[in-house]
Write a structure and sequence with these properties.
The protein is mainly beta. 10% of the residues lie in helices and 35% in strands. Bound molecules: calcium ion (3 copies).
Length: 472
């Protein structure tokens, strides 16, 4: 349509002709808007990214909210029209994904209803996600009275109040609602590394893009894995889906890993003593620097049922998945849980010096840190079982031995975490420092320990902290 003005038209027309011309002009304008190039101005706003927190799944997605409301079918079609076949209405396959999305939506106002890909399938009498046919989890936060008695036109929507109150409801597909598109991101990890090992037969397994380290078929006292640097790679990521070896034989536990050990060498981004005990659910990024190999050594005194399953992925230097240099742990979600190593068994380990980094969501300005909420979810110095002089929430210069430091804020130690610590200083980072001693005995071993009159570190489990990025 050529550009022309109504003023110009009015000079050459009059009466009904002019009115008709205006209507034609307006109609042409609207249809022109409808036909505007969708890819350029898709009417969608980017709200965030979620990667499932586990490199092994390779399920990473970007999320967009619509600027306008639409019926369910049009909304679903729009996601594909705008972003292609890698997109659909959002499917929430895990509680982590649901919680992350709820936090992303915090900027978009209360009382909005968003379509998801969830539908009711009367043939099987089940709710499922249409993008992949996965059943909807039994953790689904249905609102009171929902899903009621759904029918073939029932669809799942999120009735969003705030990130802590976002119930799911069942709505007929003809209603018009805002909607959320989920777009799969392209994996940028390198092919699986070729890991060599000195261990039992079958100590590695390769599946998809992942090399997995496992104990193999028979017990070997030392399992050494060597992960050579591939061309273009800068890092490896380890995912400890399962890891349990023996820990200290001392009572009380001194954090020194004097039985089994897990030792890492060749990496440049963290220096720490051997690890031991339980690392289930932990991850690590290890930088090659100028090294050609990263070595992972698991040493076991005797067979007592040790088990592990460690995913290894190699990350290219130009990958968007690469952790910033110096970060041993890198969390990419809006919210997440960070635990010290061996927190699962409740015993802090010695000689830990590393950084925990959080990827800043572009729409977020601050980060909040708080304890996971359990009785002993933060206890890194002082005595946990009974009160002594070193007990309590401590910060700043009084933290000299074991501490965490929140970048832009201060150090924290002691036996509790002071409520919510908030900072806007970026990059969002927490440094962990645990010294070389855990249980503190007097220098003369014949003197009994009295923690009521002297400082000791007894029964420290370590920390479990939750971070949450916030928009304001
Ligand atoms: Ca999903
Ligand atoms: Ca301690
Ligand atoms: Ca210590």
């Amino acid at each position: 349509m050529t550009h022309c003005s109504l003023e110009g038209l009015s000079k050459t027309m009059s009466g009904k002709t002019l009115l008709l011309a205006i209507l034609v002009f307006l109609a042409a304008s609207f249809s022109q808007n409808d036909a505007a190039p969708k890819k350029k101005e898709p009417g969608m706003t980017y709200i965030g990214h979620f990667s499932g927190g586990n490199a092994r799944s390779f399920q990473a997605s970007d999320y967009y909210v619509s600027d306008n409301a639409a019926t369910w079918t049009i909304a679903n079609n729009n996601c594909k029209a705008i972003f292609g076949d890698i997109a659909s209405l959002v499917s929430l396959e895990s509680e982590d994904e649901k919680n992350s999305l709820n936090a992303m939506l915090e900027d978009y106002g209360a009382g909005i209803t968003y379509w998801t890909s969830g539908i009711y399938d009367p043939s099987g009498a089940v709710w499922r996600w249409t993008s992949n046919n996965a059943p909807i989890g039994n953790w689904a936060p249905w609102g009171t009275g929902y899903p009621g008695s759904p029918t073939s036109v029932s669809r799942l929507a999120i009735l969003y109040l705030n990130q802590f109150s976002a119930n799911w409801v069942s709505i007929y597909n003809t209603q018009k609602n805002s909607f959320i598109c989920e777009v799969q991101s392209t994996p940028t990890t390198a092919p699986p590394p070729t890991v060599t090992y000195q261990c039992s037969t079958g100590a590695t397994v390769v599946t998809n893009n992942l090399a997995r380290l496992v104990p193999g078929t028979e017990f070997h006292q030392l399992c050494r894995y060597v992960v050579p640097k591939q061309s273009g790679a800068c890092q490896i990521r380890l995912d400890f889906s399962r890891f349990q070896i023996a820990e200290d034989t001392d009572t009380p536990v001194t954090g020194s890993c004097d039985a089994d050990t897990f030792t890492i060498s060749g990496n440049t981004n963290a220096r720490f003593g051997p690890l031991c005990g339980n690392l289930d659910g932990q991850h690590m990024y290890l930088d090659y620097g100028t090294s050609e190999n990263i070595n992972l050594d698991i040493f076991m005194v005797a067979f007592i049922g040790q088990t592990w399953d460690i995913g290894v992925t190699q990350i290219k230097c130009d990958s968007t998945d690469k952790a910033p240099s110096g970060c041993l742990q890198y969390f990419t979600e809006q919210r997440g849980t960070v635990k010290s190593f061996n927190f699962n068994l409740g015993h802090q380990l010695n000689n830990q010096d590393y950084s925990v980094c959080v990827k800043t969501n572009p729409s977020m300005k601050r980060i909040e840190w708080r304890s996971c909420g359990g009785d002993k979810d933060f206890s890194i110095s002082g005595e946990t079982e009974t009160s002594g002089p070193d007990v309590g929430g401590q910060s700043g210069d009084s933290c000299t031995r074991d501490w965490v430091m929140i970048y832009g804020d201060t150090k924290y130690c002691g036996t509790w975490f002071p409520g919510v610590v908030t900072t806007s200083t970026q990059p969002f980072t927490m440094n962990v420092h645990f010294d070389e001693v855990e249980v503190r005995f007097p220098s003369d071993p014949s003197i009994p320990v009295d923690c009521t009159i002297q400082s000791c570190d007894l029964f420290n489990p370590g920390f479990c902290l939750i971070y949450s990025q916030t928009p304001n």
